[in-house]
Design goal:
Layout: E1 3-9, H1 15-21, E2 29-34, H2 44-53, E3 58-61, E4 67-68, H3 72-82, E5 88-93, E6 99-100, E7 116-119, H4 135-142, E8 151-159
Parallel strand pairs: 1-2, 1-3, 5-8
Antiparallel strand pairs: 3-7, 4-8, 5-6, 5-7
């Protein structure tokens, strides 16, 4: 199964490190959608554009100041093989050591875009609200998969905020 890695970017210096962290397998693609710094959209419009452009079987998301851990692509492939066609939420880690998700619940504060791996089934997706924080939670809470269909994986696939150690 192939994956589109979607990156909303304000062209931070860390973008190259983010891209370099993505382990590409044959057929995968990286989609970078640029934004004007301080537009207040939290990258949501860029994620929506990336989803529209994606041509692969699955979608994954990462911001331009985060990076995937080594071996993430194999972890994603394993999740896809064990639960084909299911949305998957992995764990992520902040620089201060906090790890999300904390509980297997789709609630504000427990969801972040970088943990999402979903089938590229446009009819099942909601939109990232363009001018709203918590766009990641709203996106997951409004997609058409039921909460029971979501696969919660214990693996950490992303380190967050390598451009901002104060997080």
């Amino acid at each position: 199964m192939t994956i589109s890695f979607i990156i909303p970017s304000i062209n931070r210096e860390t973008l190259h490190r983010t891209i370099d962290s993505i382990e590409i397998w044959p057929g995968d693609e990286i989609i970078v959608e640029f934004d004007i710094p301080k537009s207040g959209g939290w990258g949501n419009a860029q994620r929506n554009r990336g989803i529209a452009r994606a041509t692969t079987d699955y979608l994954a998301f990462i911001d331009d100041d985060d990076y995937f851990i080594s071996g993430h692509r194999q972890i994603m492939a394993s999740a896809i093989n064990k639960n084909p066609g299911k949305p998957t939420l992995f764990k992520i880690r902040y620089p201060n050591g906090i790890i999300l998700w904390n509980k297997k619940e789709i609630v504000p504060g427990n969801i972040s875009t970088q943990m999402i791996l979903i089938p590229n089934q446009k009819e099942m997706l909601s939109e990232f609200w363009k001018k709203r924080n918590m766009g990641d939670f709203i996106f997951v809470d409004n997609w058409k998969w039921s909460d029971e269909e979501v696969v919660w994986r214990e693996e950490i696939i992303c380190d967050m905020g390598h451009g901002n150690k104060s997080i």
